[in-house]
Amino acid sequence: MSFPRYPAYKPSGVEWLGEVPQHWQTGQSRRRFALRNERALDGEEQLTASQKHGIIKQADFVESEGRRVVEVIKGADILKHVEAGDFVISMKSFQGGIEYSPHCGSISSAYVMLKPIKDVHPGFFRWLFKSSRYIQALQSTSNLVRDGQALRFSNFAQVNIPVIPLSEQASIAAFLDHETAKIDALIAEQQRLIELLQEKRQAVISHAVTKGLNPDAPMKDSGVEWLGEVPEHWDAAKIKHRFRTTSGSTLNSEALDVYYTTDDDDEAIPWIRTTDINNDEVNVAEVFITPKAIADTACSVLPTNTVLVALYGGAGTVGKNGILKIEAAVNQALCAILPSRNALPEYVHAYVQFLRPFWMERAVSARKAGNISQELVRDTPFPLPAIEEQQAILDNLNKHLREIDLLESESTASLVLLEERRSALISAAVTGQIDVRGLVPEASAA
Fold it and tell me: Are residues 242 and 153 in the same domain?
């Protein structure tokens, strides 16, 4: 759907705004917002700044995200006061804009509170301060990547903003609330579809490597509750009885000239880490090591078709896997299942993908929750059919996975387009590139 433009435009004199409607003005941010620098009051509820949720109560953040945040108990006098209606420059504002606070409370002294002082409709500025064009303008005020500094009020004050009637601010805010809600609903549908496709993908893999292709095949109890029944003719031995497994080593990062090299070195050896695997083929490396690193540590060069499993890194990483398509060494956080003549490498990889949820549930270690051990991997049952049946299962599995991957790619592309449309619509509305007055009921714009 296209939206009308204003009847006439003029140069704004502000680079990030460009041309604006004829009746719009521009002005300094400090004329509309002042710096609030007040100590928190005794007993105030602590708030959390989040790009995803805005400024919310810590308890609500913990409930929605399922993880805790640091609560200041001693030294609470270092917290700052936030009024409902303030805007907050947070640690992530350089990347995602300035957050709005609907709550009164206390927040980290590292943040900067902006107090509206004149002609500010909060709904309009919630959208303006999160628009891509405004964020780019804010980024241009400081080289944060180089100097590691946080955004300050002085950065905010450098970015001039549009000055428009309050009624028009309200109309733009109501329009964006209405239109983005529709886009967000479509985004949620696509995200849910992608989740369902990923669940279906896991289910297809699980059925293939635990039940086979013949629905009439006699079954037997595997003896493992989570595995259930498997075909009677499959040999149900543990991984350690079928494959050799190994791991890598941590290298001294200070010995750059001894252990690390570049890929143009003729003797360079690819070194794979958990960040280099993503449940697929591993064809490239970002880090390369020297033969001396192999000689001095527990690292060894692994053959192609070795299957890798991530042992450490928390719930998001444990069980991640890959199959080497290059000869490479690995770090200590990966378990390597070496090739065997009795198993097709791609079949082993498929079975490892089936196992990931099982390993994630058991991701514990004596020192830190969220890890698994090489012994757990080695002790995992692996019911295995003959090579010919493995190949038949793989052929059928790959056919179904290609269909799922195609649907997921289409959904991902749709998701990208929706997110791009959302961002473009927000920027167009808050900079006056479209005229949205009267496009929503007056009640919505109140």
Answer: no
